[in-house]
Amino acid sequence: MRAYEIITEAKKDKPIKSRDPNWRDMEALRKSSAAGSHGDKTKIIPRKQKHKDSVTEATVGREFNHLEDLVFTNPDDGAKRAVQIIKDMEQDSSDVAIKWDGYPTLYWGRDDDGTFRLVGKNNWGREEGKSGSPEELKKFILSRGKGEDWRERFAGEMADLWPIFEKATPADFKGYIYADLLYYPGKPYEGSDGSISFTPNQVTYNVRADSDLGRRIAKSKVAVAAHNTYQYFGDKSGTPISDVKQFNGSSELVVLGQQYVSKAPAVNADNLGNIEKVANKAQGSIAKFFEKRPGLSDLNNIFYTYINQMSRAKKLEDLNVGSFLNWIQNSKVSANKQEKILNIAKEQEQVMKDIFYLVSELMKAKNEVIDELDKAEGDVTSSTGGKPGGEGYVKTKDKVKLVPRDRWTPFKSD
Description:
The chain is α+β, with helices and mostly antiparallel strands. It has eleven helices and 15 strands.
């Protein structure tokens, strides 16, 4: 049976998933002013399309996409570009930075009149949460939810951060910084055996106590990983922060910008040659496959959603044409689009096979590079669930992320 023939049966009812017993507390925390959601800091929130099925240009994925996703997010040359990025890292890794797994998210800064503010991600730009004092911040957090046991403690902890951030923010600074907490008095770092460790979310970071960063941490109470700057409260167009020196004038607060790796990885991926051959042969067909069609202008977005959901379900080893067509019949993709995709699959099944081959093999090659980077000795090392490695790395110049999707899936910290 050919792969596209699997969509001949009627759609089956979707099974009802059991709900996490802690979902109420987690949802309440997500909605609170100071918590925010632990999502990807590189996510792009596209504007709604007026005509969903018209042939229009649309942003696919995020500002920083997974390396292997370039196959369909940049179908004109993405596969070949991904191979070259891996090769280049062996020669120059100066722009490869640690991808911090911080939580919760904060925005802080000053208005044009100098007024200092500190808010959470989910209240960014909302007038009712535009806290002007620690008391207002605490009051807002307490006004949300349904009186959960943890809320009073959490509100107090966030309010206690206010004077620390205000003191560290220059009086003449205008604008806001978007960052994630790495440790704070409510969830402090620990020190032992010449190492300082902290676990803001899933990943545990270990910092050499005798390093410059270790000595700074030992004197501090709070640390954040800064991502973007914004011109005003509620601004939607942030700029990656390049210099955090002006916020590190107080010993109580450590503001980290990009933390780059200190050693280039040895690229020993045996499959790179085969990937490159398939990419060179299939790149033109892949570009044509993802061309925008009337009634189906977002095929690469559909692939993006499929692979993300397979990643969260820990089924990345099952990326193939049959799996995709099975998935699509139970997805939110409209019946009209499903029919169009089925027709395309009948005509271009080999192209689809090439796409999934490239995504899967690039993922394997990327994972080997990540393993090399994780093994490198440096001032900062990470582990997840007791195993070496963290959330991964970011190749800043090429705007791609190197995340071990086989072992790391985002979730909200408690």
